[in-house]
Sxe2 (Drosophila busckii), 372 residues
Amino acid sequence: MQRFLIFLLPLLLLQSATAQLFAYERGKCEISIVNVLEGLAQTHLRNLLNPPPRRITNQASLLQYDLYTPLNPQQRQLLQPGNVNMLKNSNFNGKWPLRLIIHGWTGKSTHCYNAAVKDAYLSRGNFNVIVMDWSHQAMDLSYYRVSKQLPSIAQSLAKFLRFLHDNTGLRYEQIYLVGHSAGSHIAGLTGKLLQPARLGVIFALDPAGLNQLDLGPTERLAPTDALYVESIHTDLMLLGNPQADRLSHAATFANWGRGQTHCPNATATEFDFACDHFAAVYYFAESVRRPHNFGALRCNSLRSALKAKCSCSAGQRTCAANASMGGEPAVPKRGIYYLSTRRQPPYGTADGLVHMQLPRPSTILLTRPKLL
């Protein structure tokens, strides 16, 4: 392993630092299958040369905020907390809503799934879209070590949002935080720190389970962290969190939160074993573009969703949806919901109906050719 890392380091240092276009298109975003391996190797080398206990790290200095707007939809503009001149020289518009995307464990702001969400918002009109990068902390094999840093990351993000509010007139209720996996809990912790001000919405895309399963509401995402919190669950087998009623006002279990119909890896930008986990991101991005694509059926309880016992009346296989998942703007609802998806994009049925399907086993050990 050590020899491999020493061989890999020169190749990593040769990567270009120049700004590139960022979009969900071939060659304009980074495929996490490749970059996760590189990032983990870099972190391991850094820890070998400078072990964590000996480092004094300012968490805020490790975060990066990439701004995209209709005026610069693919070329990022960097923002820094406290740097008023940088903010004024950017295309940030305090009259436009802010949608801030937070990646998860082993993530990076330039990964393709973030581009999918960013592009979806900009396709809908005038938005400030910021993709927060916390890859310096996230690229670590130890999820326990990553989890311990989430509160300090949230503290830095809360400070950044106050900076935007104070200097642009942006109202907190105009802010949506969109977090994937561990990013969902960063969003929740940030919402707590901003109170008594209230964020508008938190969308939690397959919020992480793992270490967060044993935490109380003050240490993880909770329904009180924004005016409205919605979670989308797609991976109960491996990385997701089944405790939906403790996390959000409304929770949708796509395909019962188990084997997703397009997996293994129709997107081909993530590891096959994580295809179910990332499905929530791609479903959400589609819902932003087409808010009524994902009709959902309200279940009687969380237990009924976890046991795949939600049903249409009279045992029918198809029935009218009584809510929609995700969307822009968010449409607040309450309760636990089920929906099924198609095998290829568009994933939503877009017919206003819910099509009941039996649970599928996860396909995390299978592979398919890359499509992107």
Observations:
- DSSP finds eleven helices and 13 strands in the chain.
